[in-house]
């Protein structure tokens, strides 16, 4: 397919069948999309448009697409070999991750999503299975590429389930869901965040998980700003000093 030899099938999901393959430059992975994509002219056009955007991106947090096309009535794309377990596999092993690791993953995924969003590409298919977690950090793959139907899985944002189309805030909402699951081992609302999770991370997740799209950050830059906020200890110290001074003044007046 497209000059690639499909060696064996590695799995199938909503985005199609994944094959280990051999190309001119060596091993790779080839995703062959479901036939319903090719049968729908609008979805087929969306796929070709979005996969070209992804192919043009070079970012350490994004899977590298090397080729794409349409053959024998099926759309496909080829990418570099996958060499790290996904977040779902990690959570199956340990149930939940410590908050410093989750915060580090959050920053890495915000950087990767920011690069995609700046190029005009929304992921649209975020889930723990879409995040590879290796020694060099987190990496995104399994992009929706305009072909994921509404209600395909439980990680879709409310407006995505309703409209059938993801926007920047949709990616951020689902990012909040998978980070919450990484912290607790369960869905939002089913498990409280562990003790010790800092206020900035709690506030960050609260905003991302807002049901209303207008209550979420409107960009990865805004989301990162939330995650880097620190409690204003300096203001607390000044305020405390003022209260002490006022108290002493009141005592002197009473005397």
Describe this structure in words.
With 255 residues, the protein is of the alpha+beta class. It has 2 domains: 5-79, Phosphorylase Kinase, domain 1 (2-Layer Sandwich); 87-228, Orthogonal Bundle (Transferase(Phosphotransferase), domain 1), CATH 1.10.510.10. 44% of the residues lie in helices and 18% in strands. The chain has 9 helices and 7 strands. It has helices at 35-39, 41-55, 87-94, 99-118, 158-163, 168-184, 199-208, 220-228, 233-254, and strands at 5-13, 16-23, 26-32, 65-71, 74-79, 131-134, 137-140. The protein has a 5-stranded antiparallel β-sheet with strand order 1-2-3-5-4. Strands 6-7 form a two-stranded antiparallel ribbon. A hairpin with a 2-residue loop joins strand 1 (5-13) and strand 2 (16-23). Helix 4 runs antiparallel to helix 6 (168-184) and helix 4 packs antiparallel against helix 8. The radius of gyration is 23 Å and the shape is globular.
What's the arrangement of secondary structure elements?
Blueprint: E1 5-13, E2 16-23, E3 26-32, H1 35-39, H2 41-55, E4 65-71, E5 74-79, H3 87-94, H4 99-118, E6 131-134, E7 137-140, H5 158-163, H6 168-184, H7 199-208, H8 220-228, H9 233-254
Helix pairs in contact: 4-6, 4-8, 6-7, 7-8
